[in-house]
């Protein structure tokens, strides 16, 4: 296996470990897939590197001051979910991924009778800035129905909750501009907790009752599904 391939694999591995969302098996699968067209890619070598570096990161995490910024971000997003703002951690790789994931959850919640006000998220590209010198994390947002006034209310609530949890934020008040968390100190290690889909449903179902008028009748198919 070429040294340049090893270097590229290690570079990705180091970032993914700092992100802190993937366990050893996930890391092995995702990084191996990056080099699917490399016939001599050494998965045994990669597994060894993952084991060494992941263990080191987990050991270092024992010395972190608590709560970490990620702990406070989880607390913030949990509160937003409680307030019917669907909030997702590391939702896909791009803005479109994050918006699609949020919209999908909002649709599924509506199908079982739960209304929402809007959503927020950050994606993998945002995390790359958080662990880099910029130390900032962008938070994307919108209302559930793309209504501008409601979107602004959603953004103001997000900023308020983040501020209450000790974050310094920057937002110019425009719904076309994402919210920025400034000087975030990203520290997270893998814990095998679902911070997205399952967590959103668990929180919303815990604090809210389904609204019967909002429950969609799936037995009634749209005319285009009949053909």
Detail the topology: elements first, then pairings.
Blueprint lengths: L2 H17 L4 H11 L8 H19 L7 H14 L2 E4 L6 H17 L6 E4 L2 H7 L6 E7 L4 H17 L3 E3 L8 E4 L14 H11 L15 H4 L1
Parallel strand pairs: 1-2
Antiparallel strand pairs: 2-3, 3-5, 4-5
Instruction: Compute the number of helices.
Output: 9
Q: Kindly state the mean pLDDT as a whole number?
A: 94
- Please report which band the strand proportion falls in: under 5%, 5-15%, 15-25%, 25-35%, 35-45% or over 45%: 5-15%
- Strand arrangement, largest sheet? 1-2-3-5-4
Domain DUF6891: 3-188
Pfam families: DUF6891
Protein name: DUF6891 domain-containing protein
InterPro entries: DUF6891
Describe the protein in words.
Pfam families: DUF6891 (PF21831). InterPro entries: DUF6891 (IPR054186). Residues 3-188 form the DUF6891 domain. This is DUF6891 domain-containing protein. It comes from Winogradskyella pacifica. Strand 4 (168-170) and strand 5 (179-182) form a beta hairpin. The protein has 2 domains: 3-61, no CATH class; 69-214, no CATH class. It contains 9 helices and 5 strands. Helix 4 crosses helix 7. Strands 1-2-3-5-4 form a 5-stranded mixed beta sheet, sandwiched between helices. By secondary structure, it is of the alpha+beta class. Helices cover 52% and strands 10% of the residues.
């Amino acid at each position: 296996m070429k040294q340049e391939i090893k270097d590229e694999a290690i570079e990705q591995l180091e970032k993914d470990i700092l992100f802190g969302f993937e366990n050893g098996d996930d890391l092995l699968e995702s990084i191996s897939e990056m080099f699917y067209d490399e016939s001599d890619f050494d998965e045994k070598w990669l597994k060894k590197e993952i084991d060494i570096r992941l263990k080191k990161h987990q050991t270092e995490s024992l010395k972190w001051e608590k709560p970490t910024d990620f702990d406070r971000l989880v607390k913030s997003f949990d509160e937003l979910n409680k307030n019917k703002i669907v909030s997702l951690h590391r939702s896909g790789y791009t803005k479109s991924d994050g918006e699609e994931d949020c919209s999908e959850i909002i649709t599924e919640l509506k199908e079982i009778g739960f209304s929402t006000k809007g959503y927020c998220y950050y994606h993998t590209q945002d995390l790359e800035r958080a662990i880099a010198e910029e130390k900032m994390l962008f938070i994307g947002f919108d209302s559930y129905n793309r209504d501008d006034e409601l979107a602004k209310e959603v953004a103001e609530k997000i900023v308020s909750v983040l501020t209450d949890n000790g974050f310094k934020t920057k937002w110019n008040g425009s719904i076309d501009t994402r919210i920025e968390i400034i000087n975030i100190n990203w520290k997270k290690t893998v814990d095998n907790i679902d911070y997205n889909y399952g967590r959103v449903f668990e929180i919303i179902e815990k604090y809210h009752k389904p609204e019967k008028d909002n429950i969609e009748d799936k037995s009634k198919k749209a005319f285009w599904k009949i053909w």
